[in-house]
Design goal:
Blueprint lengths: L10 H5 L13 E3 L2 E3 L5 E3 L6 E2 L12 H13 L3 H10 L6 E5 L5 H9 L4 E6 L2 H7 L6 E5 L13 E7 L5 H11 E12 L5 H7 L8 H6 L6 E14 L1 H9 L9 H8 L6 E13 L2
Parallel strand pairs: 4-7, 5-6, 5-8, 6-7, 8-9
Antiparallel strand pairs: 1-2, 2-3, 9-11, 10-11
């Protein structure tokens, strides 16, 4: 393979310090058109700046354009500012690398990088619409297309902080992969919805119901890890109907409902609509 011309390291080039080939687990380097390893595996870098490193036969696609756009509007509104503040508080000074698993547009990771100038990050996600945004979310944040529940293309013991915000854990395999990439003393910051999250909307709109105990499940997700803290972030927001629809359609309910049908149901309710946003931020530390 022909090496790419030398240039000042960008976020993706810098991230090759911790990324690895998802097929053979060898180190990666920048090559013409993308990144590659000594075994000859090549992964394209899109013109928007994210690397496509799914590996294997993954068919994961992640969130749609409409879901990503709804999430951006919610985040811009400030409704989730309390959540991201709790995430930032959980990230220690002096950490070098943060990896956001299922990190979408990179909004959470970028806010952490703003608060921790010495930190660099990688967002891993399956959604192309989200990654196009993540690639430009922060100058120290690399974006990589990856099906993290099949494997995490990151080197052993290389990550100081891992984020998992509203993203599934991937079961025992996902926990083992996550534990593999964590450096000694690393932290895992997990954000999960509580049972009263969006409680005013669940019955009215027929939404997915959040089961109780998700914080306890997150706390036990990595065998042997210590629970440093569990912080509940909760607030009731008065929202317009379009804002409510964005809250609903930014997440998994979007795969089960049509926005127009939900809008018809909401039209029967007076506005603004009171909506509870309630999550737990669980912080674990590994030896």
């Amino acid at each position: 393979m022909t090496p790419a011309p030398p240039h000042d390291p960008d976020a993706l080039t810098a991230a090759l310090e911790i990324l690895e080939c998802p097929l053979c687990r060898e180190a990666l380097e920048r090559v013409d058109g993308g990144v590659g390893c000594e075994a000859g595996h090549h992964f394209d870098v899109a013109r928007q700046g994210y690397a496509s490193m799914r590996g294997g036969a993954s068919t994961a696609t992640g969130d749609t354009v409409a879901m990503v756009e709804a999430r951006e509007r919610v985040q811009a509104s400030g409704a989730h500012d309390g959540i991201v503040a709790a995430i930032v508080d959980a990230v220690p000074e002096g950490a070098r690398w943060i990896v956001d698993l299922g990190g979408g547009t990179g909004w959470h990771a970028a806010r952490v990088l703003d608060a921790r100038p010495g930190l660099r990050g990688v967002v891993l996600d399956a959604s192309v619409p989200a990654l196009r945004r993540a690639a430009r979310a922060h100058e120290r944040l690399a974006a990589v297309a990856s099906d993290v529940w099949r494997g995490i293309p990151v080197q052993d013991a290389s990550v100081d902080v891992a984020l998992r915000v509203f993203a599934p854990g991937g079961g025992e395999r996902g926990a083992a992969e996550l534990e593999r990439i964590l450096a000694p003393g690393a932290r895992v910051v997990i954000v999960v919805p509580e049972a009263d999250h969006h409680r005013e909307l669940v019955d009215t709109l027929g939404l997915l119901r959040v089961p109780a105990g998700k914080a306890e499940e997150a706390a036990a997700s990595i065998p042997g890890a210590r629970v440093l803290s569990t912080t509940r972030v909760s607030a009731v927001h008065e929202l317009g109907r379009d804002e409510v629809l964005d809250l609903v359609m930014m997440g998994p309910n979007a795969f089960h409902h049509e926005r127009a049908a939900l809008a018809d149901r909401l039209a029967e309710r007076p506005a603004p609509v009171a909506v509870t946003i309630a999550v737990s931020v669980v912080v674990l530390e590994v030896d």
